[in-house]
Inverse folding.
């Protein structure tokens, strides 16, 4: 690139329009010279804006707390000790397992099941080796003999 220096300013060839645009953008960004009015917010405007943000975040937080209080959470220990161990267990969910609403008699609506297994590292090689993609795809991989137990 051909450059010329004149009074500590760098000038590029006229054919380098892209570099001229970049140079103008950098000078505009540095704001060495401000032409025209520069709007400065008053403290009252900033305080009103922050109060608006506070009320918005407070209302979203209250809505999230209300919606999360509508869920019923039932926790059953993985090692259920009151029944003899079998390969597959069917456990009755009672109101003593659940928190959320008192006097719960029946779970209605959509039911989501989540597992919490403690003491297992998800990146351990034996855990990754036992991954069954057919089961994750929704296929039943249990044999009928196992279900008869």
């Amino acid at each position: 690139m051909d450059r010329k220096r004149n009074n500590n300013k760098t000038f590029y060839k006229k054919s380098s329009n892209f570099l001229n645009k970049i140079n103008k953008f950098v000078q505009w960004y540095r704001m060495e010279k401000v032409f025209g009015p520069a709007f400065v917010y008053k403290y009252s405007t900033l305080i009103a804006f922050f109060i608006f943000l506070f009320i918005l975040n407070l209302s979203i937080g209250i809505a999230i707390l209300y919606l999360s209080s509508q869920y019923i959470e039932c926790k059953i220990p993985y090692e259920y000790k009151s029944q003899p161990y079998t390969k597959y267990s069917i456990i009755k969910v009672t109101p003593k397992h659940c928190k959320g609403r008192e006097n719960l008699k029946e779970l209605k609506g959509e039911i989501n099941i989540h597992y919490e297994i403690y003491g297992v590292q998800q990146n351990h090689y034996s855990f990754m080796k036992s991954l069954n993609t057919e089961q994750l795809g929704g296929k039943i991989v249990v044999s009928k003999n196992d279900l008869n137990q």
About this structure: DSSP finds five helices and four strands in the chain. The first helix runs from residue 17 to 30. The two ends are 82 Å apart (CA to CA). Residues 78 and 117 are 7 Å apart (CA to CA).
